[in-house]
Amino acid sequence: MYPNPNSPRAKETYNNVDTSQKAHLKGNPRLPHVGRNAWAWMTVGIEVKYTTVKSAFLFENNTLEEETPILRNSEEGEKSQTQLAKYATEMMVHQHRTFVFIVYIAGDQARITRWDRAGCIVSTPINLTNEPWKLLKFVYYLGLMSNEELGYDTAAVLATEDEVNELIAFKPRNKYAAQCAKDIVDNRVYYPIYKVRPFPRDSVHFIGKHSAASSSPTGRATKGYVTFNMRSKIGSRLSFLKEYWRPILPNSLTELDIYELLKAKGVLNIATIIGVGGVNHQFTMTEEFLGREKLAKRGHCLILFEELARPLADYDDSSNMILAVSSALIAHRGAWLDAGILHRDISVNNIMFVLEDGADDTDVRAILNDWDLAKPAKELGSGATQARRSGTWAFMSAVSLQYPLKPNELADDLEAFIHVVTYLSFQWHRHSLTRLEGDSVYSPKELVEANSSPGVGGLYIGGVQKLKDNIAGIPPVALEAEYVSPLLIQLVSDLYRLLKTHYSTIDFEELKTKYSPSNKRHTAPLPRKRIKTKRRAEQQLPEDLHKSFLQDPIVGVAASTNTERDSLPTLLAPQTPHRVLDTHFHIMNAFEKAVASIQQLEEVQGDVIQDQFYGLGEIVVAGPKGASGSKRKSQSSANNGSKPKKVKSLVVDDTKSVGVSGELYVVVEGKEDGH
Predict the structure, then answer these.
(1) 254: Cβ contacts below 8 Å, ≥ 6 apart
(2) Residue 229: beta bridge partners?
(3) CB within 8 Å of 13: residues ≥ 6 apart
(4) Which domain of life does the UniProt lineage start with (predicted)?
(5) Are 294 and 385 in contact (CB under 8 A)?
């Protein structure tokens, strides 16, 4: 369903959709009949199945008893559930929405669904043969609703044609920014250009197609935009806008609080905030119907950063990637030692290159961003504040995936840095599972440990192969020496030797006892493997080496002298095994060695190939907190607030039936209660 004012634009978008490019349908006789969708202009989605047999929902019972199932537990049913979640995601990714309605029709049955960033509310079944007036009544009320009541973010306003032309005429002074401007203009049919007014209020920023976006309809749903401040008289016209849905938790530091603390402590390689604000009255509603313990209400937030950020995955060669991750590691160490803050969401998407307006494209530095999941060290043992695990699935430590009740600790974050290097190595470099052009499509799930299974209490458990690799100290695949920089190969080898040493000290029996999902005691510190010999005292990074890491103004990392390196303990060869990821010392030592070698190179080896994860979509990192593999260089409510008398909740297995990040909560709304 499309609104009248925008119907011409919806028609233009609809007519421009080329269904022949849908690769998964090539050769399929249904291809000529595939429907086209103008996601950017759709007010309400309507999905129609000719029969209930293949539908996402069950329609046989119109009861609110807790035991009554509402999801069709079959292969076809799970496919339909995934499809429905995808539709909700597409609408919210292409538009600025606080929630969306989708009407689901199967045969002569229907359900009305309402999706926000906390989950999905599902109506009781509507029999279109016996009570069609119920659906007609819903459509009638849609016509009476304001844009805000329909779920539109009224703080985002469509740019006028004159404003779009002004953006077209704007010529940024570096190539990446120019490409961003071109992408926004070229994609404006599918991702319309809007103007927003984040703080400071006197500025107007134009945004179009996002540079990064969550592939989930639920959760933080982070979007990142390169913004153009066309009214700026002084300073840069370019900045970066982060939009996300923050959980509203008592006594919890906001991301702004974290950034202010990090800046006060002089932490390097973090972004500079120039404006922040929450959008008034834009909160989720699903959690109110669920009444589910620890499911937080979410509020819509905007943060404007001074730096123009470019994805880490856009690196030109492995040397750049190593330097960028090293910069992020410097930021992480400063946050932990100087500010007592643990990031808790180290991932490929949270390490970014920064370009200054007017700077040459080769003049880059890297930052560690997205601190909205960060916690003070003193709170790490207090247990979870939300129902689901914090972190990004593919980069979480093996013990966190195996024991989801284990509190976060420093070692989990440092292991995530290792998985960032591993992930990028397998995405952009030749290795033992690389399929060259012309080879058959191969989807190596084991590369990123995407598989998971629901455990006790709806907790997700996974990373079995990741755990085996860590214990063995062997990467999942082997990089090919003929095509990949020896520096990257050596770094990956050193990092996995670190993992082997660290995991050799873990007492898994004790860990299982304390952190099994069936055991409520899960706030004790991570157990250490009992060793008869005395464990070597914790070592701090020598001050002179620490200073040498901070010398370079671009990457924040520089090599120490050979004498300094030789004076350090032998890498990964301790006198007695100990938890080498309990401090930053050993992992920084490994990166320092790689950086020193990079700076001695006379020329950089171009070892990046095509995106080997392209087309895998949700397969890449599906799970409780996922994000799809990215292309290189791109490509208030209708309810009056009263609650139903009785609600029913159900957790959907997101890896099977949804295939998106975050748990998807589905509730059956009560019968009419005066509204």
Answers:
(1) 246, 372
(2) 205
(3) 38, 39, 40, 41, 189, 190
(4) Eukaryota
(5) yes
> Sign of dihedral through CA atoms 556, 557, 558, 560?
positive
Burial of 154 (0-12, 13-18, 19+ CB in 10 A): middle
Q: Tell me how far apart the alpha carbons of residues 577 and 470 are, in angstroms, rounded to a whole number.
A: 15
- Strand, helix or coil for residue 26: coil
Strand segments, DSSP code E, in 298-345 are 298-305, 308-311, 341-342
Q: Side by side, which strands form the sheet with 365-368?
A: 308-311, 351-355, 365-368
Find out whether 327 and 591 touch, Cβ atoms under 8 Å.
Answer: no
Asked if 48 contacts 9 with a C-beta cutoff of 8 angstroms, the reply is no
The encoded tokens of residue 521 equal 């005691």
Instruction: Give helix 175-186 / helix 161-169 axis angle, nearest 10°.
Output: 150
d(CA 370, CA 331): 12
- Contact predicate 86/24, CB 8 Å: no
Q: Give the Å distances, CA to CA, from 589 to 550, 573, 601.
A: 14, 13, 19
Per-block mean pLDDT, blocks of 10 residues, the chain (675 long): 66 62 57 72 91 87 67 89 93 95 94 94 92 94 93 90 87 81 89 81 82 86 87 67 89 89 96 80 86 76 87 90 95 97 94 71 76 90 56 88 89 97 93 64 42 58 89 92 92 96 91 72 35 31 37 34 31 56 96 88 75 63 31 34 30 27 32 30
In this structure, how many other beta carbons lie within 10 angstroms of the beta carbon of residue 567?
A: 12
CA distance 607 to 303: 35
Query: What residues pair up with 300 in beta bridges, in sequence order?
Result: 245
| DSSP secondary structure string for all residues of 477-542 | SPBPTTTS-HHHHHHHHHHHHHHHHHHTT--HHHHHHHH-TT-S---SPPP----SSPPPPP-PPP
Q: Is 227 helix (H, G, I), strand (E, B) or coil?
A: strand
Please give the helix or strand (H or E) that residue 243 lies within, else none: strand 238-247
Prediction pTM value: 0.76
Question: How far apart are alpha carbons 404 and 515 in whole angstroms?
Answer: 8
Computed on alpha carbons and rounded to an integer, the radius of gyration of the chain in Å comes to: 26
